[in-house]
Amino acid sequence: MRLPQALASKRRADCAPPLIADVRHQSVTLRIIGIALLIAGVVLASLGVFGALRGPASAAVAEALLQSVESPGFSFYSWLDRWKLWGVGIACAGAAVSIGGIALVLGKRWGLLVVAFTLFVAALVPWIVQALRLARYPFESAEMPESIVCLALSTIAVWTYFHLRTVVPDA
After folding, report:
1. Which residues have CB under 8 Å from 121's CB, separation 6+?
2. Beta carbons of 151 and 120 less than 8 angstroms apart
């Protein structure tokens, strides 16, 4: 008696050598990570665009608050320009994370390097801005916990890239 074709092919897949099964598991895990990164990147890019577009309303509120405290050094237009610039930077970082996520969904390991580089730059740029004394407003200042998290995630992405290098070939 013959097994149906679908059942026979499933049985052959279950009897695959361990290396092939490991590659399949790695591939599925990589794609799931890619989908999560794609979603996170789209959300981050959306927040950056939304922040850049909603900047005038936020600047008006910030100006009203600072005038109530009588802080003489606040410039509405300078604050707005910097807010929009940081919003565009966040949107670009989100787009880069999305590109890395798409690459992972397509099975390309180099997407991990794109994500790692983006996170590394996100950790480094606020410190460079602060070291050059270009930061004027609180949202431009460097934060240690934020940088530590970005660097840790970047390190994990690079480690995963090299760990998967021996298992999943990159085409």
Report:
1. 93
2. yes
